[in-house]
Design brief:
Low-confidence stretches: 42-58
Structural class: alpha/beta
Number of strands: 9
Order of helices and strands: HEHEHEEHHEEHHHHEEEH
Strand content: 5-15%
Mean pLDDT: 86
Radius of gyration: 32 Å
């Protein structure tokens, strides 16, 4: 019986690529992989850090020129020309005394997408931040108010860090009398960028202060968000703000509530703290509902008083 013999081995190796040619290609491949990996990590590092070094993205601190901008929005459908002119005169004279600037807007200047005209105050404040990027603070004061004490400067009367720390109401209900959401107890004046008061109904947005800066821009943009304007709150931007500060700790963490008469006294005491001589401002909160000429009539005694005070100062 014959068996098949195994094939004979050959001493001639198969035609593999010579060793001398393999090494350069392998090294080139490894070098290419290392280069691509290094480029990837450098790109990631650049993207993460370019905001700190790029001159256009770096945020400058305001210089304080002007120190304060006083913002007021007018509704010519509710107030007569004589009354509005007296408010403008009041703001201009106060600003002139302290080197401030004024910013006046009218209901109808901005597209509110069908929201009530009272929302104009929020977008006007945002506009003023853009127009006066060097200002330290913006003080919104409603059209139904007069500055009464020309001696008081916002940056000294309220915004000095140590003084604001003492003025802040801590662990205090945001919406009186018994809101479970309260102002933080650990904050100091240097932590605060938004200052306002309360009356008997809740937060009062007729007179408030915003510190200029990235947070101030963020806050006003948040407040003016279309979702809040579309909610149809009973008191429009006021109730929207109460919602925001109670449900967004980022806002609550920069907020300070101070005594009403420090910033927002009322001409009558049925809705809040009544004005007394020496207070910085007075608001005629009920005059619009009393009739077309009621505001101008009620304002006469305060107009005479502030003009006398400003003349003496």
């Amino acid at each position: 019986m014959h068996f098949a013999l195994p094939p004979r081995k050959t001493s001639i190796p198969p035609p593999y690529m010579p060793r001398s040619n393999r090494l350069p290609m392998l090294r080139r491949s490894r070098f290419k992989l290392i280069a691509i990996t290094g480029l990837f990590f450098l790109t990631v590092i650049y993207l993460l850090t370019r905001g700190n070094g790029h001159p256009k993205l770096k945020k400058r601190m305001p210089t304080g020129n002007p120190p304060v901008v006083v913002v007021t929005v007018f509704d010519e459908a509710k107030y007569g020309k004589g009354y509005i002119d007296s408010i403008k005169e009041n703001r201009i004279e106060y600003a002139k005394k302290h080197g401030y600037q004024t910013f006046f807007a009218n209901v109808g200047d901005y597209d509110l997408k069908g929201a009530p005209g009272s929302w104009t105050k929020v977008v006007a404040m945002r506009h003023a931040l853009t127009k006066y990027p060097e200002a330290y603070f913006l003080w919104y004061l409603d059209q139904n108010a007069f500055v009464m004490n020309p001696q008081l400067k916002i940056e000294d009367h309220i915004m000095k860090t140590a003084k604001l720390t003492d003025l802040m109401k801590k662990d205090h209900p945001v919406v009186p009398p018994d809101s479970i959401i309260k102002t933080f107890s650990h904050l100091t004046g240097q932590d605060v960028d938004f200052i306002l008061t309360q009356d008997k109904d809740g937060l009062s947005v007729g007179s408030f202060i915003v510190r200029n800066g990235e947070w101030g821009e963020f806050f006003l943009d948040t407040w003016f968000d279309p979702i809040y304007r579309s909610y149809n709150f009973q008191k429009a931007e006021t109730h929207a703000l109460e919602h925001i500060v109670q449900w967004h700790p980022t806002i609550l963490a920069r907020l300070a509530i101070i005594d009403q008469r420090l910033l927002n006294s009322y001409s009558q005491g049925n809705k809040g703290d009544q004005y007394k001589d020496g207070d910085i401002a007075v608001r005629l909160v009920d005059c619009v509902s009393a009739g077309a000429n009621a505001c101008e009539t009620e304002s006469q005694r305060f107009v005479q008083q502030w003009r006398t005070s400003f003349g003496k100062s």
